[in-house]
Amino acid sequence: MKKKVSVLWLIPILLLIAIDQITKQYFYLNKLMYQEKEMIKDFFYLTYLENKGASFSMLQNFRWGLVGISIIAVLVMVWFFIKNNAFLARLALSFVLAGAFGNLIDRVRQGFVIDFLHFYPFGYNFPVFNIADVCVNIGAFLLVVWVLFFYHETNMKKESRYIWK
């Protein structure tokens, strides 16, 4: 039996990509205003940053390698999205796909990812990030929740079906 994937899943993915790209474009056009604009004293700043690497500025100047890795990761996630019809798994993958696409667009188009959210929790200088990064983290968290609390149950139901035959 073929599994169907509703086109409606594209709506949240495209909406999150649009929010990410609009915010990045805003900060790109107004980068001089956001060298380190304090929003909440000693805690939250808007800081324009051009990140030519991956998370936490690792793999600097590895643009095409990161593009290739991103494309492979997106293809694997799309395959998993199609193969799995669990709502929480698809929701998690929607967030991760949106974040991956958002940063992939930046890397291909301009050679760097625009970051602008800058926190100093408890005096610690946390790396600057963007909406796409938030999406990836939300998706990863939801995926962990799904794997820990729901994935096993769905597998057990499949196995119990075969035991009784």
Descriptive account of the structure:
It is a single chain. The chain has helices spanning 10-29, 63-83, 87-110, 131-163; strands at 37-40, 44-51, 113-119. It starts with 9 loop residues before the first helix and ends with a helix. With 165 residues, it is mainly alpha-helical. It is globular. Helix 1 runs parallel beside helix 3, helix 2 packs antiparallel against helix 3 and helix 3 (87-110) runs antiparallel to helix 4. It contains 4 helices and 3 strands; from the N terminus they run αββααβα. It has a 3-stranded antiparallel beta sheet. The model is unreliable at 159-165 (pLDDT under 50).
Number of strands: 3
Count of all domains? 1
Query: Overall 3D geometry?
Result: globular
Name the strands of the widest sheet in spatial order. Answer: 1-2-3
Cα end-to-end separation = 19 Å
Question: What are the low-pLDDT stretches, counting only 5+ consecutive residues below 50?
Answer: 159-165
Kindly report the average pLDDT value.
Answer: 86
Strand content: 5-15%
Given helix and strand content, the structural type is: mainly alpha
Computed Rg: 19 Å
- Secondary-structure element series: HEEHHEH
- Proportion of residues in helical segments: 55-70%
Largest sheet: 3 strands, antiparallel
Task: Compute the number of helices.
Answer: 4
Can you describe this structure in just a few lines?
With 165 residues, the chain is mainly alpha-helical. The chain has one domain (9-163).
Keywords:
single chain; 3-stranded antiparallel β-sheet; 4 helices; 165 residues; globular; 59% helix; mainly alpha
